[in-house]
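protien #1 (seq + structre)
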Amino acid sequence: MSIRAILLVPALLLTLLLGGCGFHLREHDAFVLPFQTLYLQSANEFSPFIAELKRALQENNVQLTGSAEQAQLTLHIVSETKDKQILSLSGGGRVREYRLQYRISMRAYDMKQQDWLAAQEITVGRNFSYDDSQILAKDREEELLYQNMRSDAVQQILRRLNHAKSPQPKS
């Protein structure tokens, strides 16, 4: 028996056992959103956040339209802001720690201007230590933290849209 055959048998056996017990790789979070078409309104439609949000909506089978009249729902991203605050200083007055915050203000409404999601703000924050002897590495870390916060904000919007309901007609 060759070495290849000896290694192949346990791998094949393990694959059969895992398949037989119902194991499967976890897929990304999929939402069943209560609408099929959406118009995404934003002041800065070319921001990385908007690009990521569009991609996530399309992955969840939402068709993005070119105008609010063609869509069941309008998602208005009112503002997107980044903030950086000093948390602590060293004895010599140098920054030791920052607090990063990423805020998204949004609202979702239908063609009749009835709110599915009232105006609200999503705030995501992260703390990170700073060392001015590693400026390039810390700048890259800050960039990655903002990227992570953007992704977190997109997921929060999807969860909120997933639970959004059409307003009840007034009688």
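ok now protien #2
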Amino acid sequence: MGVEIERKFLVRNSDWRPLISSHSEIRQAYLDTTAEASIRVRIRNNSTATLTIKSRPSDLRRLEFEYPIPVLEAEALVSLRQGSVVEKTRHLIPSGKLTWEVDVFLGENDGLVIAEIELPDEAHPIERPDWIGAEVTGQAQYYNSSLARRPYSLWQAPNRLERHG
């Protein structure tokens, strides 16, 4: 059984950019989102695709099941989505045995930059680089399924952040 243990943070500046080891372009769409689970299709670099089911609520630990699917089938599923397509560039930044994933959102979520780190267990300590800002783990509006329904461009000040990343 797949389990995801992840923490999310806002990004306070662009000091992370020289540390990037790789990046990928991601488009994802949500086929269904309920109080119990979300079902999404993700296309990475227009060359690979996955169908993912994640349990909710969005807290530190949740079930995650991910299955590879053909890109053409993923494109067809995108047309069945609820809400907007979430577009982002994901940058990987190694940090010891862990890796920070910095998502720079595009399209309707342009201006939002979030860093995530997957952990082997909930108590695993992390070193927070200076470019990491406030923790938003568990704050539903920062999760991709919420951004598909209510994009960052629709947020009202003071809920919108200055663009830093």
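The chain has two helices and nine strands.
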